[in-house]
């Protein structure tokens, strides 16, 4: 499950650099990427290699990445790529022309995110049973919630942006609270945790194989 980029990318999920050799292969067209040419990557967090050694880069030609950006969950702009500031001016201009700038793409990105969120919500409401939604949240270590609307909102958020990591201060569950994500845990037996953030750390949202086989939309 690919997640959508937010305005900031604290995990450096998307990277741009000059190819260090001719050995990398584009995951879009399966051809080699020439040394010293621009290449873009999306980090893979879920492969066997990634789980053992840490996130791995999956490289693309710029045009191949641009054609596949929605499938890769990229709705950002050129400046969002980690390493953008290290490029020469000519290549920065090229990426801005293809992916836009923070000003030009902000409205477009929000519109695309809203459209994607509503698509997820509609499909979940029509096709997925509430007990399956609960299983998905539990499988990904998310806070249990009740009520169809709350379940759909929670799973939609995870599908679009990734599953929420635990609170960094008390290891409690984070939940969305209108404008930010707040912790629902306790620091001590008598003290509630008041941690909140607009940019929570996330991880890949995993779908169990049994559920994936039953529901095509997942």
Automatic annotation (TrEMBL):
Domain of life: Eukaryota
Keyword Lyase attributed: no
Residue ranges occupied by any PARP-type domain in the UniProt entry: 14-103
One of the protein's GO biological processes: protein poly-ADP-ribosylation
Keyword DNA-binding: yes
Reaction equation(s) it catalyzes: NAD(+) + (ADP-D-ribosyl)n-acceptor = nicotinamide + (ADP-D-ribosyl)n+1-acceptor + H(+)
Keywords: ADP-ribosylation, DNA-binding, Glycosyltransferase, Metal-binding, NAD, Nucleus, Transferase, Zinc, Zinc-finger
Enzyme's top EC category: transferase
MF (Gene Ontology): DNA binding; NAD+ poly-ADP-ribosyltransferase activity; NAD+-protein mono-ADP-ribosyltransferase activity; zinc ion binding
Chief localization: nucleus
GO (cellular component) term, any one: nucleolus
E.C. no: 2.4.2.30
Compartments reported by the entry: Nucleus
Protein name per its UniProtKB record: NAD(+) ADP-ribosyltransferase
Organism: Rotaria sordida
The organism's taxonomic lineage, starting at the top: Eukaryota, Metazoa, Spiralia, Gnathifera, Rotifera
